[in-house]
Amino acid sequence: MDLVFLDANILFSxxxxxxxxxxxxWKLPGVRMITSAYAIEEAHRNLDFPKQRKDLExxxxxxxxxxxxxxxxxxxxxxYATRRIKITLEKL
Length: 92
What we know:
Layout (H helix, E strand, L loop, with lengths): L1 E4 L2 H9 L14 E5 L1 H10 L3 H11 L3 E2 L14 H12 L1
Parallel strand pairs: 1-2, 2-3
């Protein structure tokens, strides 16, 4: 299995446009995607619209965050997917 790290630029770009070509990464077989809490926060902070943030949260559903801590101050309005990341981080 290939391990792919998704930095903030990749997360942002995938969520920024609904037809982003980068979303094909999520469909690749045999790939495990990881990211960091910092990358999640930065991508979320830079997305302007609720729809973009929702798309990011949906994409994060299949991504494992590798940090044990996360800064929540800018994620206060996130929905279930981001809270799921929080739960995952607390279990690490």
